[in-house]
Fold these 3 entries.
Entry 1:
Amino acid sequence: MQTDTYRHKGMRRALVKQLREKGIRDQRVLNAIETVPRHYFFDKAFLEQAYQDKAFPIGEGQTISQPYTVAFQSELLQLKPNDKVLEIGTGSGYQCTVLLQLTPNVYTIEYNRPLFEKARLYFRNHGLNPHTFHGDGSLGLPAYAPYDKIIVTAGAPVVPKELLRQLTVGGILVIPVGDEKTQRMLRITRVEENEFTKEEFGDFKFVPLLGRSGWSGGE
Ligand code: SAH
């Protein structure tokens, strides 16, 4: 059984302090990071790493996103209580668990079967209830659309049109887009049925988004 002690909570407070110094302002997001035990997603041997502001391997060639990136993307989403959110790239389940602190209405889809199974088990063991799916999220999750917010946690070559279609009017898509080396963080808002605005927020490095509208689209 995993435990969350004063020591872990102290490590999280220190992490939140760092995130604030790096420019994260949204108090609800900072509270969520302070609440979620990130060490639950790590092997016991890697406790120190769990509370460093770094990405870390989670197996299957994938990574748990850096806390700063999780906070930054969460902040860009401007989540309101009860917003319906789609996360593409469940991975470890950490970002999803952070989102669940901000709204109970989270859908998350993962392409990699072993990671999907592991995350699902994690949610079940911790009494968390996101809607979990296994499949290609580069096409979104049309069966449950529209979403108030969509967050992509893997680097995309382009903005998939399918994701724009699955936003509510007023909805927001946060997605890193670029080449294999770096991706620019984009926030796209559906201001009207057929009108979108795009804002850019600096460079990040994600593992590639696979699938039809991702890097395996041409195959
Ligand atoms: N949000 C995750 C970050 C995981 S890294 C976390 O908090 O840990 C990105 C994840 O996206 C990987 O697990 C990868 O398998 C997944 N992924 C890549 N392409 C995908 C696709 N087309 N659909 C769904 N998931 C995808």
Note: The radius of gyration is 16 Å.
Entry 2:
Amino acid sequence: MADSNQIHNCVIIGSGPAGYTAAVYASRANLSPVLFTGPEPGGQLMITTDVENYPGYPEGVMGPQMMEDFKKQAERFGTVIHMEMISKVDFSGPVHKIWTEAGQEVHAHTIIISTGASAKWLGLESEKRLTNKGVSACAVCDGFFFRGMEVAVVGGGDTAAEEAQYLAKLCPKVHLLVRRDEMRASKIMQQRVLNTENIEVHWNTTTEEILGEEEVEGMRIKNSQTGEVKDVPVKGFFVAIGHKPNTSIFKDWLDMDETGYLKTVPGRSLTNIEGVFASGDAQDNIYRQAVTAAGTGCMAALDAERYLTEKEIV
Ligand code: NDP
């Protein structure tokens, strides 16, 4: 790592599609960006198998391979990549300060945050074991693999409602498991779910176990009112109980909504702090796609470049 007196033009935190795209743009603009990968280099796509909806890969691509391609492209133009996590930031001055977990202090004129979000999971051992073998946290990403099959979605929010409807177009039957006797989703989304013939809502229902050894074969569910436990055969099990943006280290500095998504100027990547830009799932709780994350990573790099030019730093 360079000495801590050096002020980098641009530091990127995070290594999903947003971070690496920001790195490609920033390095091609001669900003000599430095990227810190964070604890899960490559981000959420590293736990995905086939990616079939990213433009440019007509045959699809494995998530980890795609992230390796992103990384190579960022390195090709000179991005310096550190496999380290940033654990503290100080955005109080015109030069931004960040610290790696190992305690190294790093200074930068601009910071691009692309720390992503993590899906919340139920916490079952079988869920972990069968992830990517029928268990998924993204219907838009993985639903296609289950077309023609019976599937389940867990959750009662807008995401679960949306995923259930998405899957209902591909699958003959979708079981929606709601842990209370009502859904948190907006009324209109609830109505759509209830009006969709091939979605069966199981109220007051929790998941005891996801069944199957090599792949998902079913689920053991429990009605918390009656105590009844039953096994239902399904091939896909989609967990849609919310995401958590990885933004806790920024809470003293940046505006965020009540769940921690960073707020940016509409249509831009600018945060409330000059020279700090946000991209990808850390600031997007609506689309959450690799391609949209890449798009906002590009925006953040262009915004950073513009900022550095206006301040006559580059
Ligand atoms: P939410 O936090 O809104 O909902 C999470 C749901 O999962 C709740 O129904 C919750 O139950 C349930 N849940 C949580 N933990 C468990 C568990 N361990 N077991 C079973 N169920 C559990 O998350 P969403 O991802 O649905 O939405 C996040 C935000 O994004 C919201 O503001 C939403 O409105 C927005 N959004 C908007 C969309 C749109 O407008 N098109 C689409 C998708 C999201 P309980 O209610 O009992 O707490």
Note: The chain has a mean pLDDT of 95.
Entry 3:
Amino acid sequence: MTQVLQVTAELFPLLKTGGLADVAGALPAALQAQGASLRLLLPGFPAIRHALRHETLVAPLGYPWGEGRAALLRGSLPGFDGIPAYVIEAPELYDRPGNPYHDEGHIPYADNHRRFALLGLAAARLAEGLDPDWRPDVVHAHDWHAGLACAQVAASRQRRRTQARSGFTIHNLAYQGTFGAGAFNELGLPPHFWAVEGVEFYGQVSFMKAGLQFADAITTVSPTYAHEIQGAEQGCGLDGLLRSRSAQLHGILNGVDGAVWNPATDGYLAKTYDADRPEGKAACKAALQKTHGLAQDPTAPLFAIVSRLTEQKGLPLVVDALQDLLDGGGQLIVLGAGDARLDAAFNHAAARHPLQVAHRTGMDERLAHRIFAGADIVLVPSRFEPCGLTQLYGLAYGALPLVHRVGGLADTVVDCTLEDMASRHATGFVFDGFHTDAYRRALRRAFALWQQPEAWAAVRDTGMRQRFGWNDAAKRYIEVYQGLQR
Ligand code: ADP
Ligand code: GLC
């Protein structure tokens, strides 16, 4: 049985800033159900460190940059029964409140290269047998935070200290973890890794590149994104490297964790419902309108955004065309955190149109569930989107996704064309070309369909019956792991 170490910085439900946490939280159980033996490795951020139970000390871990050392602990995390977790205890690096990557002013921590270098180093030490009870055959690293794990495992293999292989999953190529050249000397990598064929990227150290260069297999979170990142437009400067590795690059679509995202069992909802008995959704919409001061009107289509407020998510299109949404008699609820200008724009709209627009700033897991349940349409007009999970949650909860045809959005939503409606494949609204007019036309299609309640219900029904489970993805990951051991 393949033994796999999952290396990640976030883990739902303990620590989440975005979809990475949802994936890292759902994949372990899915892999375990397919027969993999796996364990987790995480930095000891407060939410993780405090949740660890039945802990034992595995071994101390020296810092590669100088004096001091961390402790590698092993224990269990709530919700991950039978999947032991390794946690790096290093309070001076990780014991900081809030976001794992930056301070309250959104400034990345100056020692991030050290904080995440240690994560990679711990992975390689485990691959070398630091824990006499268990040793991974495959180290599976997620996003730039864990990218150095792949470089460290490669270094350990060169020194003949391990035979383990590594896999690297790109959740978002736009966040690369780049640091000044001086950081290299603090990472504990062999000097010859400072090279174009190593971790050097235009004179800087890139943790993302470390993953892409040294992983034995690379995956990303949708087939379309796997293709897109091999081109200049979405390659973020790494498309050449990705093209050179295309034989080892796999697009594996994320799934939906049905234990967390299921309107039939969701304890946060005013009323549960499913595709066979969708009536409860009306109660969820009424509750959402009431709580947020929107007009209590079942005939007004309720649009929703649950999102990090960043450039990636294409929200300026929504702001630009807000008047169209309002003129059509629509309502909009926004739950988001991030960019101050977007936040101000939605605040302003909510203040001007309190019966039609509601806005909540911050991260709120419970409200997110209530929004997907209460909304009729979820807006995901992203400029780029590796996979995207909110359109999948929208489908599951009967909120038709309106999306830009890009990345995982293109792979998961079928536009309401006449032919796809006739064959009952249509699940939402998809626009081509990232500009306001294209978005506006999709908005008009949504209003037109809303005028035909039976057709709307049929599309919603098709959407709610889609199954984006984790089983298929877990099988694909296991094939990738097995391919590495041949
Ligand atoms: P990304 O990882 O790029 O942010 P995804 O669509 O993959 O995008 O995942 C976003 C995840 O974060 C989803 O689980 C979504 O519900 C959640 N989310 C985003 N913003 C918020 C928020 N303000 N409050 C609660 N959950 C949020
Ligand atoms: C990233 C991407 C998002 C993806 C998520 C989980 O945050 O932006 O598209 O769904 O990772 O893989």
Note: The chain has 19 helices and 18 strands.
